[in-house]
Amino acid sequence: MARPSALQATVWAFVGSISLYLGFVSLLTIPFLQNQAIYLNSVTLTWFQDVTIPEQWGFLRNQVTPFTLQTPDGETLHAWHILPIGLYQKHEQQLLAEPSGIVPDIAQSLGFQLLRDDPDALLVLYFHGAAGTLGSGWRPPSYRAMHAASPDKIHTVAIDYRGFGSSTGFTSEEGLLTDAITLAEWAMKEAQIPPSRIVIFGQPAHAFLRYGPGLVAPFVDVELLTATYRIAGMIPVLDPLAHFPPLLRFLHNFIVTKWPSKIKLAQFINRVEQLPAEESRYHITIIHAEDDYDIPWTHSEELFWHAVNATSPEGITYDELEKEKEETRLQLGAGGWLVNRESKKGSIREQIVKHGLHDKLMSYPVVSLAILRAFQRG
Asked: So where does this one cross the membrane (predicted)?
């Protein structure tokens, strides 16, 4: 039998690759597998580590208090309360004397009391992105970045959503929003921290509540995300099909989980803008790195436009805003650039840095400064 020519082998390899890719795409129309591709919650990245022992990630003994939260629909969320290093130093001996590991009642821990009883305490509510747990990758270093600018005052509480890590339940858009609200309600009611002393930090845009969020490497919505996203930075989802708009629109009909961040953010701003002058204000910061190979920084460009467009009834076109940005943009050289848009009830800031990839950026000083600025303007 004659051996296939090099051309035939190439053709068969190409056809095989196309078949495998189309098979992969067809599997994504199944809701369960679609959820796995979006959330990657089964990929914990902490398989051989115990998330009830935060010292494994370089934290001091009892600097982090692991605890659980109960959601209204019966799920149990695993959480970390991270003390700022300066505050830890002041109470080090008392903290060292406490039992370590997950606490049965967070209200009985010294760390919680230092948060609740300090009228000047500040709190970051940290909502991580897809894949992993609250101990994965660059998340622990980013917790340290939260309090870097004020090491005596800024506490951080991070959670694993339902279905992530040791939290119970199954992931869903509605469920994750319930988890975010559960943490916010805990912060205000149990820890007794008023909204003016709370900052929401999200990576990506998983949580829009009634407080001004800070967003790092966010996405516009799942439909645009699938057209640009590469799983682990390597495996394209629908990017190859983005060149065929009718086919892409057809496949979007099968997307169950929408995460319309652009709509949620616009609704949040529009709602606050309509409140009486003496009521709530917002301060939103969107940060993205140009070298982010997971979620292109152009997502932040579009999110910024949707946010600014919602600040007034007359709105603004994308091209009009781009022209305005050209005139007001602050160039930071190798540090990138930023623009800031003030409105009647708040401010919207977009900062694009040149370096930081998708996750490293969370631990950078640009994030520490954004957190401090949000508290100062609260």
From this structure: 12-33
- Decide if 216 contacts 288 (C-beta within 8 A): yes
Query: Cα angle vertex 61, ends 57, 66, to 5°?
Result: 70
Give the H or E element holding residue 82.
strand 76-82
Query: In a 10 Å sphere around its CB, with 0-12 CB exposed, 13-18 middle and 19+ buried, how is residue 139 labelled?
Result: buried
The helix or strand, by DSSP H or E, that contains position 324, with its residue range, turns out to be helix 318-328
pLDDT tens track for 84-112: 999 999 999 999 999 999 999 999 999 99
Residue 211, C-beta contacts closer than 8 angstroms, at least 6 positions apart: 184, 195, 198, 199, 200, 282
DSSP state of 188: I
Tell me the per-residue pLDDT of 37-52, one tens digit each, with 9 for 90 and over.
788 888 888 888 999 9
Please name every residue paired with 199 in a beta bridge, in sequence order, or none if there are none.
124
What domains are defined for the chain?
A: 28-193 (no CATH), 222-252 (no CATH), 259-378 (3.40.50)
